[in-house]
Design a protein that fits this description.
This protein is α+β, with helices and mostly antiparallel strands and 400 residues long. The protein has nine helices and 17 strands. The strands form four sheets. A seven-stranded antiparallel sheet has the order 3-4-5-9-8-7-6. Strand 8 and strand 9 form a beta hairpin.
């Protein structure tokens, strides 16, 4: 009986220690695989509106790994959003990041995503990090994870439990984007420009026109010259459209499908300020501008590639010239050495020979030995008198 009770208690402890924790907001639900994500930090799993921060701590309360999940209402190009927010370090988490890799495609939370890896050092620990973006309905998800180097990771198990509670229907056409955007702006305004917010959007009955209601704070109809205001907005639109149409998929879809864009500007009280129309024919100007920009970028890339190639050739030529100069210097040094040896040999060969007189020697015998005449020996040795030499006497014998 005691054994059965012990088994039940043990099983209860195991269940409790591995019990999952769940957080839910209006955008998604997230469940942790077990309570090791809490340890010394009871509020490690925290929702902030469209964001959830989750951290797994070690025994000392230091972060082992963490995940931050953002849902951004408004569909943006995932690649551009990832580049803009993460790689260009606009996001607070990424400002001290280093070692960014190349953007690549992967599956995150069972969805196709654009991803980039980088490193970050915090509190003397180094973390391997990854940021991923993908679209869910008319919204963009940004997930940033960090995992302490040298420790096992559980983040993938957490992301596998990510369930979206928003409309996850893929949006492709301008009509779908308008319908999805209208649901978003019903809750709050979306940024659409500098100090401007999208506060309403609709598609005309004949599907030819996308009307955008744009709130312009701090400006009223009475405070502006409406024609000048509209002209300024028009100039601004054409200057910024190249980037805006790449970034915001609602505008991109309207442009792609050649919809008439009708901007209806109002102040914060809803009073009309002015309207702006962008016609489908004018998209050709944008496309031409984009084509020119792409051509210019390509030309600059080619020039940079050619410059790099020339620099490489110059470096290689300089290296070859340096090698040739080194070889010539070595050759000259060797020739100088040979000349010195030859000069030394000449000096050595031209130096007189010293002969020590031994028993049985006489001048004739010595002269014959060295191939010189007796008179030459006598001339080189003035001390010789009457052709008499002594044993042990040292004679100077000139070379031939």
């Amino acid at each position: 009986m005691k054994k059965i009770i012990s088994t039940i208690l043990l099983a209860t402890i195991v269940v409790l220690s591995t019990s999952a924790a769940t957080v839910k907001n209006e955008y998604f639900t997230l469940t942790t695989p077990d309570d090791s994500w809490f340890l010394t930090n009871d509020d490690a799993l925290r929702p902030y509106g469209a964001r959830v921060d989750i951290a797994r701590m070690d025994a000392r309360g230091a972060t082992l790994e963490l995940a931050r999940i953002d849902y951004i209402e408004g569909a943006f190009n995932p690649l551009l959003y990832l580049t803009h927010q993460v790689v260009e370090k606009k996001d607070v988490f990424c400002r001290a990041a280093t070692n960014f890799g190349q953007v690549y495609e992967s599956f995150v939370a069972h969805r196709e995503a654009k991803c980039v890896q980088f490193k970050k050092t915090s509190n003397n620990y180094t973390y391997d990090c990854e940021a991923s973006t993908f679209n869910v309905g008319y919204g963009t998800v940004l997930i940033i994870t960090a995992h302490r180097v040298g420790n096992p990771s559980m983040i993938s198990r957490v992301l596998d439990n990510l369930v979206f509670t928003v409309d996850t229907t893929p949006v492709n056409t301008a009509a779908q984007f308008v319908n999805a955007a209208s649901k978003v702006v019903a809750r709050h305004h979306l940024p659409i420009g500098n100090n401007e917010h999208l506060s309403g959007t609709e598609m005309s009955s004949d599907s030819s026109t996308v009307t955008l209601k744009v709130t312009v704070p701090y400006i009223t109809k009475e405070s502006v010259n409406v024609p000048a205001f509209v002209m300024t907005k028009r100039d601004t639109w054409f200057k910024q459209a190249h980037e805006a149409l790449k970034f915001n998929l609602l505008l991109a879809a309207a442009t792609r499908e050649r919809k008439l864009l009708h901007y209806h500007y109002v102040d914060t009280k809803g009073n009309e300020i002015g309207t702006l129309l962008i016609y489908p024919e004018e998209y050709e100007q944008l496309e031409q501008k984009q084509a020119e920009a792409t051509a210019q970028e390509l030309e600059e890339a080619i020039k940079a590639q050619e410059a790099a190639k020339l620099a490489q050739q110059e470096a290689q030529r300089a290296q070859e010239e340096a090698a040739q100069a080194k070889e010539a210097a070595a050759r000259a040094a060797e020739e100088a050495k040979q000349r010195a040896l030859e000069e030394e040999k000449k000096v050595r060969d031209s130096a007189p020979i010293t002969h020590e007189v031994k028993s049985g020697d006489n001048l004739t015998k010595i002269a014959k030995k060295y191939g010189v005449s007796v008179s030459t020996i006598k001339q080189a040795n003035p001390s010789i008198k009457n052709d008499q030499i002594k044993i042990g006497q040292k004679l100077t014998i000139p070379r031939k």
